[in-house]
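pinging the channel bc i need a second pair of eyes. not urgent but kinda urgent?? the chain im working w is below, pasted from the shared doc
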Amino acid sequence: EIDILVRQRSEARWDGDYNRADELRDVIDQICVTISLNQLQYSAIDLENDLEYKIVTTDLPRSQGGGSTWELQPINNPLFNNAKSEDNVLQLAHAALGMVVSTSERGVDVNEEDLDRLVSRIEARLQTLQQRKAMGTFFPGTAAAGELHGRKAADAAFWLSLAGVNARDNFIYDELAQVASEELLRFGSNKSCRAKDVLHIVERFAMAGVTGSSVHQLYNVAADCLEVKMMNNTSDSVDDSDDDSIDYNNIIKSLRGDVTFGLHSDRSLLGLWRFSTRQRKQRVFFENAAKHFDGRYGKEETRLHSINDDKSDKYEWSKLFKDPTRPLVVDVGSGMGVSLLGLATAASGATHEEEIQIDWNECNFIGVDLSRLGIRFARGVSKRWELDNLKFVVDPAEECIERLSSYPGPIKLAMIQFPTPYRYTEEREDVEASVAQGYNAQLPEDSESGCFMVTEKLLRLIQEVLSRKEDGKLLVQSNCEDVAVRMKNIAETRAGFKSVEFTNSVTALDAVTQRAQRWVANGGDRAIGKSFSSLPLLPMVGRTETEVACSLDGKPVHRCLFVPRD
């Protein structure tokens, strides 16, 4: 009866008959449901009295499938909290991210005990939602997801991964994936749900580095929804106006696979790149998360400690790695760590070029970056993936390289991949004008300001460390031609490196970006010749998000490989 009333009300709202919809809502509001204890056989539910409930309806926007759902709100028992209780999963996830952002902005790391308390509240809330789901046996129309309608479960998973949350036994991530699957089963095949809406959900879980059976179930449900939309092939259900490069047939195939869709899929890495490069939007998002945490929980409630408190232990190699004599791969300026996360799971074998021959399965990996948020994300995924041979540290690049001299094993490869470029301007007036207009205001002012990571000192330190270790090499990559040329020139003329020459070298190059066009117009040296590889030098799984974005956008990547001079 309840299902029928709610469905009739949904149809009235869809047809614009709001008077009829209000009449039906009044009828629904008068319903009181009583459940006798002897009807409940679930061990997870421990109650003393019969349960009385009223019916609460939730009207969904068309972007989330439209229609209405209903759920039971307790009148005499608080066990099944409603979606508007203080502990809302999405709000708690946002607060967890806000805690990390808030403390990081003050130059300190978050106190893990405080974060664990928030995580425990999320776990408790998800368990409550599980218990509510048990009521579905008696009331199939009950909205099990409740507060996690649409893509909210996917957003919560992504925000928690950004906060570096390493949930116990992956319960949180698995449960969120299960909720997302149920949501897609509920509305994913509706015409009001576009293919992009389905894709955004699975991409968020992939970007969060979620693995396991629950997320694979979600991928299969998403593939089913996309197949329905491809068969219907209506403009409403397949709306890719924002990105005409989406190959849904290929995405469906990858979603059906066991390991092909995930963090290192093109779409996931492109999503991470878009998130990290949209500076203004990202800054506002992080600021709102920090304000949410500070406003709701208060700065004074969070105990702070310096990120350098454990500096003496940061490079104790025997504590970092089970076997510190294994070859080491270093990513300087590792960002969100996706390249090392891929390499640490890569199979052995050669890449496109024979110049990098590494058995990745036999290596240790370390990434260094000043971004606490990037490092937290990387550490969280690494722990969830149980990668004992991969570590990430927050430190200046030069200090990390200096510490590498004490590493017991050989250093096979140091990587500098897509360092944040300096602003390209010819005159001082151009710098001031670009900042005033907000263009590239987040970039280092120029290559000599000391804010650009790749300095002569850094390259010299890398050269000295590699010279003392057997056959170590330096890989440098950039999507800015002038930056790549500058790093190459410093490495060769002032830092004691020589370039490796490639068979598959760059013989011609189009200036496809405005920056490259300005560089060429001003007579800058081109990234052409045997020192620049035309093919990727790392396995596909080792690509960064920037490299994938360049590849999909048809923009060149400038790659060089160096060895210390004899």
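so The chain has a mean pLDDT of 82. and The CA atoms of residues 173 and 210 lie 7 Å apart. — does that match what u expected or am i reading it wrong
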